[in-house]
Amino acid sequence: MATVEALVAGPITADTVIDQAAPSKRWGRLGLLVPAGLLLIIGFIVPLVIMLWYAFTDPSVGFGNFAWYLGDAVQQRILLRTFTTAVNVTVICLLLGYPYAYAMVAAGPKLRAVLTLLVLVPFWTSLMVRTFAWVILLQDHGPIQSLLATVGLGQIPLIRTNLGVVIGMSQVLLPFFVLPLYAVMTNIDRRLILASSSLGAGPITSFFRIWLPLSLPGVGAGSLIVFISSLGFYVTPALLGSPGNSLISQQIFTQVNGLLQWGRAGTMGVVLIVITLAILAILALVIGRSTSTIKGVR
Amino acid sequence: MRKPAARMWKGALWLFCALVALWLAAPSLIVIPLSLTDKPSFSFPPTGWSTRWYTNFFQDPSWVGALASSLQVGALVAVVATIAGTAAAAALTRSAFRGQQTVKAILLAPMIAPVIVVAVGLYALFLRTNLLGTTLGFVIAHSVLALPFVIIPVTASLNGFDRRLESAAAICGANRWTTFRQVTLPLVAPGVISGALFAFVTSFDEVVLSLFIQSPYLQTLPVKMYASVTRDTDPTIAAAATLILGLTTVLTLTTTFYIARRNRVR
Fold first, then answer.
1. How many A/B residue pairs have CB atoms within 8 Å?
2. GO CC terms for this protein (chain A) (predicted)?
3. Is the CB of B88 inside 8 Å of chain A's CB atoms?
4. In angstroms, rounded to a whole number, what is the distance separating the alpha carbons of residues A143 and A146?
5. Is-contact B98 A9, C-beta < 8 A?
6. B116/A273 Cβ within 8 A
7. What is the pLDDT along chain A (298 residues), one digit of tens a residue?
8. What is the ipTM of this complex?
9. Does domain B63-265 have CATH number 1.10.3720.10?
10. Into how many domains does chain A fold?
11. Which of A45, A89, A97, B1 is most solvent-facing, going by the fewest CB within 10 Å?
């Protein structure tokens, strides 16, 4: 039984052997987890448990908050809007990010360094600074609106609209799409393309039959990160959107700050986390299955 | 027949990428000219120039105070998260135990958990424990978010590390502490340093948790900026944004060059 568990736990390394020989040292090593564990319990786990607790107990014990949430038409509209916003942002990141990541792989070393630097710029630029910049760019009579007016598109309202929120969020989240995709693409064996063209495939066939399927895990990882982050995004939608087209995160804020409805805020928090976990689980399943088919084909 | 078509495709791809790159990098830069406007408005592009918003920033105690709090909290978070994260990374790479993957997943969970939910829960907790608007509260909250950004690079450098060097040091008579200080630490230093940098930047940049755990007595710079955007049109915020942009750029570039140079020397 113990051997089975050891096999399940992973390959036996030199470490495992040492650890079995000296249990005290082993506990010492696990003790290294204590500072991080304490931080995580106080700053992450307890807050989440409190939210869960509120969802089921405030103002009264039971499923009252969930009944309210599922029965409220406004909340359903907001949840739907949150979903469509996240889908739109993910699609935009996919359309802009896929060619960009491809170019990063195809480029020579110097150009690749420049492209990498440009995708990393947003990482060290403060979220607050970038959102503020979008407030300026999208404002009424702002630079983008005047540009659109010169082109002849007239006064399209941008700030305090869902369109503005989607524009700002996709710029903020694009690096999170490009980087995992780039990591997957650099590991694709380029000789496979050569092999397919030597077998008579044109560049388009090679791309769709070889490159695209092999890059799909990166697309999955990137889309997942972008989609999940979009669902819970607060600052950018709060500053670029309006209360009239708010997302679930703004609703959580309002329930606590304006209405002191802790139970309802907790309920929405639970909904958000359950959705996030469900998406993660589905994707883990899909990726697991697709990689096993690829392995099977090989 | 195929060659000109291929060239056209390539040209189109590069043009497209140039536009995407512009879209990624340019928006943040507009805060720089805006901070030098001479009018108390956000109209862009500015029509006249002045440095009055910088004077305003450094003469207003609430802006300077916010900057000081941000720097202080950021430095403390860099220390706390780097120590806790490096220790955790060492435990994760150096020993095999049951539930290791689960522990790792939980430690990295703050990266993808919706921050707003954590923020409200933290607000409730800090309300009861009188930690609202305290440095300790800020350091705890920000360190949790910063932990994954330390654990990831440190784990990477520990994994790419030749363990026999430690055994060699032990054989030569070094005790565990000396081995750690003279062999392990210098070799994983690039990972630890980039972890510390990311921890600082994460804290310096954090808005959502900070909005909930702030008090009128302790506000960080992003909180002050958030309040300023929602309340009035005061270009002082553009001056603040430019200062943040400059500070984080200098920090990141210095660290990147330092690590690149170290790697080349070795």
1. 247
2. plasma membrane
3. yes
4. 5
5. yes
6. no
7. 333 333 334 444 444 444 444 566 667 777 889 999 999 999 999 999 999 999 999 888 889 899 999 999 999 999 999 999 999 999 999 999 999 999 999 888 899 988 988 888 877 788 999 999 999 999 988 888 888 888 887 778 888 999 999 999 999 999 999 999 999 999 988 888 888 888 888 888 888 888 999 999 899 889 999 999 999 999 999 999 988 889 999 999 999 988 888 999 999 999 999 999 998 888 878 777 666 555 444 3
8. 0.89
9. yes
10. 1
11. B1
